[in-house]
Known about the structure:
The chain has helices at residues 2-27, 46-56, 70-76, 129-138, 209-219, 233-239, 295-304, and strands spanning 33-43, 60-68, 82-90, 93-102, 120-126, 142-143, 149-150, 162-167, 173-178, 196-206, 223-231, 245-252, 259-267, 286-292, 315-316, 326-331, 337-342. By secondary structure, the protein is α+β, with helices and mostly antiparallel strands.
Amino acid sequence: MRTQRILALGAVALLILSLAAVLGASTAAPLAVTAVDTVGMTVADMDRAVAFYTSVLTFEKISDVELSGREYELLHGVFGARMRVVRLRLGAESIELTEYLTPKGRAIPVDLRPNDRGFQHIAIIVRDMDEAYTRLRRFEVEHASTGPQRLPDWNPNAGGIRAFYFKDPDGHSLEILQFPPGKGDPKWHQAMDKLFLGIDHTAIVVSDTEASLKFYRDLLGLKIVGTSENYGTEQEHLNNVFGARLRITSLRAGNGGPGIEFLEYLAPRDGRPAPSDERASDLFHWQTTLVVNAADMFAQNLLAGNFRFVSPGVVAITDGRLGFSKGLLARDPDGHVMALIEK
């Protein structure tokens, strides 16, 4: 009888522990990218870059720090790194410019093409395309498109959008974009006096949309918010790629920030891979910063998925000068860099 009673009590205890485990698992917060925080790029001359973005595009400088030390070497994968990092805001969104005081990196290759998989840009929303283009011409910006393009009405998801690609002083590709009524975030249609309103998304060239979705949707938890297939003479002249036919997929995080847009070139299919030896100090380096709720768990999932890391793993940031406590840099299937940070 005593043995049976002990066994019964043990079974009850085991049941209680099992229920506690289930309840604990059900109340634990799921892994999530809570927001797209900022989009960053490496620049050669910070003062020149800041002057361009603030004077031409009316960004506002909100922070300017110089960083060095072991934690930043590990985070960015650059030995001996000493960086000046400036954050600029336009509307509710921001970009982050980084100048490597040491070591200096390589310039953007002169033969980088818009359908190469190292290509990335940000899309800046404007109140009036004609006025914005006139302003850019006045400042003698370098064209990447032949001129502003209006996407045709036969395309239900993109018809009426007006867009133009150009370059900053380092050769980074930028886009100005104007949505017609009924398209884009409603905030872009509010009455405003400003010409440049904010950043809608960053676009990256991908080789395979489905493979990229396994990374951004299935692993990181971003949501698809729009798709389109764009082609025709307007798209060719916008991207400056003859015969361009693109599968476009737009994703967003739950709590805001710019979207991430895939550009898969269905034609032409001759886009080259991103340089395998790209480093954060190179001027063709971009990184998109995602706020996550559990950096260590995301790192485990990235390792399990055999994704490449820039950092050796999660790096603790002790000085707090960039506003987060730990982070890591990892590459998506095409080599684009995502910075996952935990605040």
